[in-house]
Amino acid sequence: MATDMDTEGFGDLLQRAEQLTADMDSGVELPRVERNLQQILDAGERLWSRSAQAAAQDQTDARASILLGAKGFDVPRISQRLETLSAAKTFEPLEPVRDTDIQGFLRNERENALLAAIEESRRNTFESVERHHWEFMQQEWEIEKQKILNALISAGEEAFDFTQETEVPGQLGDTTVGTGRSNMDSMEMSYARQVFVYNDAVVQGAVKPSLADLFTQVADKVDDKNILDLWEMVQAVTDVPLVQAQSPMEARRSSQLQRAFIGKARHFLEQRYVQFITTTIYDNLQQAQLGGIPGTYNMVRSFLNIRLPAVMAGLEDGEVDGHPVWAMVYYCLRCGDLDAAAEVTENCQSLQGDFAMFLREYVRSEDRRLSPSTETKVRLHYRRAIRNSTDPFKRAVYCILACCDTTDTHSDVADKTEDYLWLKLCQVSLDEDSTGQQDKFTLPQLQSLLLEEYGETHFSASQQPFLYFQVLFLTGQFEAAIDFLFRVDQLRAHAVHVAVVLYEMKLLLTPNTVQAQLLTKEDGDPVPMRRLNFGRLMMSYTRKFESTDPREALQYFYILRELKTPGGENLFMACVSALVLETREFDMLLGKLERDGTRKPGAIDKFHGDTHKIIEMVAQDTESKGQSEDAVRLYELAKDHEKVLILLNKLLCQVVSQPPAPQSDRDRLKALAVGIAERYQTQGHSGAQLEASTFFLLLDMVTFFDHYHTGQLDQALDIIQRLQLVPLTQEAVEQRVAAFSSYADEVRRNLPDVLLAAMNILYSKYKAVRSAGQASPTSRGRLREDSKTESYLTYLRKQARALITFAGMIPYRMPGDTNARLVQLEVLMN
Fold this sequence. Notes:
Layout: H1 2-26, H2 37-70, H3 75-85, H4 102-155, H5 186-204, H6 211-220, H7 225-237, H8 248-252, H9 255-283, H10 285-288, H11 296-311, E1 319-320, E2 323-324, H12 325-334, H13 338-346, H14 354-364, H15 372-386, H16 392-402, H17 417-427, H18 443-458, H19 465-474, H20 478-486, H21 492-504, E3 519-520, E4 531-532, H22 534-542, H23 550-558, H24 571-583, H25 586-590, E5 592-593, E6 599-600, H26 611-624, H27 628-637, H28 641-652, H29 665-683, H30 689-709, H31 713-723, H32 733-740, H33 745-748, H34 751-775, H35 780-809, H36 816-828
Helix pairs in contact: 4-22, 5-6, 5-23, 6-7, 7-19, 9-11, 9-17, 11-12, 12-13, 12-16, 13-14, 15-16, 16-17, 19-20, 20-21, 21-22, 23-24, 24-26, 26-27, 27-28, 28-30, 29-30, 30-31, 32-35, 34-35, 34-36, 35-36
Pfam family, one: Nic96
InterPro entries: Nucleoporin_int_Nup93/Nic96
Membrane topology: Peripheral membrane protein
């Protein structure tokens, strides 16, 4: 019976063993492994070492769990959350799940939608950042490019003068940088004085003097007739009644102003011709036979005594006083004396018919224009009988009276450019003069003819710059005339001040943006009208001397006060900001803050009522360029204490733990901060309490590190105890950890250095006491000393332990080497 039972039991065991063997042979999760004794021994050693490391890691995890658990953190739950968050390393869509798993499918679709939104937002963010980056870079490059072009324009030919000069040994080269010499020549300085006089009158609210008169006074002192003629022309042409209009464009297009310009231009050319005739007569007195009653009639007669041989051929209708009658009439008209022309007609019997009537009406008219009906009669008579006349003076006189045959240049009579220009101005018909004639000659047509068809080449502008400027200026093309003159190095100063005259008279056409080219044409402007970028013109001119003569540059910038930058800022303020940053003349331009807190006025106070506003703008520009120290001084000058504290905190937190060194950034910032702190403590400030407390705390930390780096450990430890930044007892740890969150980030980022410095102080004191105790002689008193020493060493170790505990509890990720060094020093004290 028993044998059968045993046989059955062994059979059952055998069957189970075979089943287990079959499972092991066929299963993929539990592969069959065969090892020898050496392999088993190596595996055991690896498991033992791994278990030791796991025990150490468990101990570390346990300590971390204790610290985090004390603050109410559930470590296992946090670990699970971290694992779920770190499961997906990229934003790629998740793999699809089986169709039968509805919950998994919905969860997967939701996560895919979230990931797709995150990826799209990330891509859009990167694209937006890159686009804004390149836009900013392009804007910065445009500004720098304009500065370079302005510098080259201001330097002129001198910028490309590479000739080498031999320097005297032992002496510095001749340079304007740092020598105190002005970059302005005598002409430019004279102009600047007149601009100062004008601005002074504007600022004081007095009657504005005429800029044209002021600049003409400068030309009077120059031994250059061309310059004097230029300013006399500007003075004459701009002496017009100003038209009330919303814009310079509207004023310039008004027929009233155009008529005034044409009249002044003709009068100027006529006066110049009178001077020419007078000079010719007095240079040839014997041939001229000047006599009789003084006046234009006898002057023209004497002039013809000199010019007669050249004009005798083809003359018609007899003579007056022995001279061709039509020549006499023309030259009287050319001199601008209509009464003298009428006198010639009265003295000639052959001209007593219709022409005498036409001329009398022409003389009586205020704007030297015949009535439309009379003009039509004269034009008809000219086409029928006068056009084919052999007398060039007769044809010219009829063309002047009737403004007809505008294609004829009358080269036999108008052989000089001024004569041609005067004759064309006499033929100009204004837009409101609608007489119906098809060959009406308008001012834009004359302007296009001279500027676009003829141009600089026809008038040999490079050899005769004053003549070409005169041609453009007298025909109302002020912007093109100034642009041309500005391109001539020796005449640049004159061009700028002509532009100043027109700008102050509200007659200069300027583009809509100061970033436009110097001379532009905008859509909708009539042909051939141009616009002059007055802001760029002034900045190009002042670029030459703004570094050596900032006060003079400031005078010119004040004229730009009504222009705006693309950002809507006042161009005057923008130029002042750039000037201050370029020259760094903060005290001279913006003023200086005295020790008692009062501000000493600067040059800018004369021009700007709200000086604090422009100082703040300069400070903002300085801050944006990364010049934070200068920005602190400027914000302090503008009494923006909030910005002063914010910037100083950012600057100080970067140098708090550095050792003091002469002429270093740290010492310079410390001196600046100490001066401001003393002033704020005595006079108060308007900054936020948090920023102020952070500022004074950073200064105390600077003092702590000063003592620490200079070896004054007791004073440094006393400061750190009074600051209560870090705990030196276990009882104060919780309190200091709780106070940690109230500190600003500028203080927090320096706490690792404070902890390390405090631990170094404790270790240095520990080592010093330990060394002194070991060196003391053996005696009865040594027992008492050893007891005191050990007590003090224990006290230091407790302080070090408090620092270590504080470092582990604060919610701040400190550098790894700081933690390692703290632990190392604490271990050395045990």
